[in-house]
Amino acid sequence: MDTLLAAQLVGPPGKAVGLDATPEMLDYPRNAGELHGCAAAFVQGAVEQLPFADGSFDLVISNGALNLATDKDRSFSEIARVLVPGGEMIVADLIVREAIPEHLLASMDAWST
Q1: What total of structural domains would you count in the chain?
Q2: C-alpha distances in angstroms, 48 versus 24, 68, 77, 90, 108?
């Protein structure tokens, strides 16, 4: 959904590209994009090894992709690599670098505040 909205915002002169790890996860946005006439591309790949050239994007948006990344440092390096100098990254992820104590994992309040 984020990629389709980004495609509408950048319009015809820009480009929006969505990335997902599995072909099945790409079917829905591709079909929705075609249905609504959005000029967005969707590519299979992993954030730890982005299939794009250096300096390909002005903006990278992550909405859950970094949550799933097994190598966070590599993922951030890849994002930096594909951004143009001065490019920006917007992240809507919960990134955990250390083990979360069991009492917090079990607490609904900890996850909903």
Answers
A1: 1
A2: 19, 10, 8, 17, 31
Containing structural domain, residue 54: 2-112
49-98 confidence digits (pLDDT tens): 999 999 999 999 998 888 888 899 999 999 999 999 999 999 988 767 78
In this structure, what CATH number is given to the domain that contains residue 31?
Answer: 3.40.50.150
SS3 assignment for the chain: CHHHHHHHHHCCCCCEEEEECCHHHHHHHHHHHHHHCCCEEEEECECCECCCCCCCEEEEEECCHHHHCCCHHHHHHHHHHHEEEEEEEEECCCCCCCCCCHHHHCCHHHHHC
Judge whether 90 and 60 are in contact, CB under 8 Å.
Answer: yes
